[in-house]
Each structure stands twice: as C-alpha cells, then as structure tokens.
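Internal QA ticket QA-208
Title: Verify multi-chain structure generation after dependency bump
Assignee: T.L.

Test input:
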Amino acid sequence: QSALTQPASVSGSPGQSITISCTGTSSDVGGYNYVSWYQQHPGKAPKLMIYEVSNRPSGVSNRFSGSKSGNTASLTISGLQAEDEADYYCSSYTSSSTPWVFGGGTKLTVL
Amino acid sequence: EVQLVESGGGLVQPGGSLRLSCAASGFTFSSYWMSWVRQAPGKGLEWVANIKQDGSEKYYVDSVKGRFTISRDNAKNSLYLQMNSLRAEDTAVYYCARDNDHWGQGTLVTVSS
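Actual output:
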C-alpha cells in the first residue's frame, strides 16, 4: 500500500483538461511544499514534470500545472494530447523514517 | 546534459548479493543529493535510499534497512548500491536519480532461484 493515494486511472479526450489527485497527510503532502509529479511512458524512465508543488522544469509544457490544498496535491493537464498518455506519479517529502514517498500511480488514457 | 547510467543488474539467487553502480556526467556530482528508486515489474515507483553530497547522511526505506548500503565516490562521479540478503521482492528495475529531478534508464535486478 502506497503512502500517497492516487486514482488508478483517468481519461480524457484530446483538447480536454484532466486533473489527477494525490492525497497524503499532514506529515507529507500537507506539511511540506515538496510535492513532485513524474510522467512515465512504457519502458522509459520517469520524467519530472512538476516540482515543489507548482514549478515546471525547463522544457516542460505549460499545459502541465500543479497545485495543493491541505493534504491533497493535484496535477492538471490542459489541452490533452495523444503523447500525454502515460503513467503519472506524485511524490512528497515526509517526516517519517522514510524521507520520500510515492503515490501508487495513475494511468492516463487519451481517448 | 545530465547523464546517469546504471549498471550491475542481473539474475541473483535469494540470499545473494549484488552491487549496482551509477556513472554520472554533465553536472557537478558532488553538489547533489543522489537517490536510488526501484520499480517492480508492472508496479509503481518505490524510493529506496538517498545520500547527501558528502556522504555524511544516508536514508533508507524500512524494507531494505540493514540489507542495502548506499555510497558514493565524488572523485569518480559515481553512486553505488550494495544489496545483500536479496529477496524475491527486491526484483525490480533500479533507477539512479539526481536529487529526484533527473533519472537514469535503470538496471534490472532479478532475484530468483
């Protein structure tokens, strides 16, 4: 069982917007602004899409945005494109003995 | 360009040992925390361990404490993961990551008799 809870799957049509949630506790997501989001295509390494809740690394499309409210972080992808179809993982710093935790992952299907 | 290249994976019997290496280039290795993250076949990501820039602090996920040891050689721009007493549940692709922002392509570790 993952420390952070994500929906197993989400879907959307090209051009639409979708949001993926990542729910933790006050010991991780809610307590720190160190939430990251990763995109992973099959057989590939994860790629950082959002760091520190809402920051985009250089080269990442501005169609990707992050936010946080309480113990839940969210990744929003606007203007869905076929290449956005992938698995998405959130991660957070945590005050537990294991300093970093991941969500279970969300499979995004572009219809 | 940041490059991280893992090596050392393979097939090992339960109870055996393996040492993973990660060769870093394209950035000042000694300035960054480094991590190992793994992914079991068809499963999600699991953070395994990380190490501070000078090696003075190391952290591990509970399931590998006492069995795995993370280390680094800043002179060689290399990160290591010594894995002992391996179990079937350690079977995974192991990724080396720079401060959780850049990742290598991974190396597969299979623990099976």
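Spot checks passed. Residues 29 and 71 of chain A are 5 Å apart (CA to CA).
Status: verified.
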